[in-house]
Specification:
- Keywords: mRNA processing, mRNA splicing, Nucleus, Ribonucleoprotein, RNA-binding, Spliceosome.
- The chain has a domain of 72 residues: Roll (SH3 type barrels), CATH 2.30.30.100.
- The protein is elongated and about 60 Å long.
- By secondary structure, it is an alpha+beta fold.
- The mean pLDDT is 88.
């Protein structure tokens, strides 16, 4: 849930989504769900000469599984906080794995 929590803090911010089919969409993040599906408003297709049929889109819904990567404005990302959250999540997973009893066949 780390990425969901992280992207939830970027709602109402401008981001650029690069899709697996080489489409790049810039817009304002409106919402995100636990599957990392994103809804954008006021979108601009970056490579509209290659995809002219997308010029007239004003908003869109992007399924999380088709996203290659997301460009974020550097001033909106607190890297220290993100690193700390990643460390805490890794520690929780490590503790969870060490607490679970191991089934050993005799």
């Amino acid at each position: 849930m780390l990425f969901y929590s992280f992207f939830s803090t970027l709602v109402e911010k401008k981001i650029t989504i690069h899709l697996k089919n080489d489409v790049a969409i810039e817009g304002t993040l409106v919402s995100i769900d636990q599957f990392l599906n994103m809804r954008l408003d006021d979108i601009v297709v970056k490579n509209n000469d290659k995809y002219p049929h997308l010029i007239f889109l004003k908003n869109c819904f992007v399924r999380g599984s088709v996203i290659r990567y997301v460009e974020l404005p550097s001033q909106e990302v607190d890297t220290a906080l993100l690193q700390d959250a990643a460390r805490r999540e890794a520690q929780l997973l490590k503790q969870k794995n060490s607490i679970e009893p191991k089934n050993i066949a005799v």
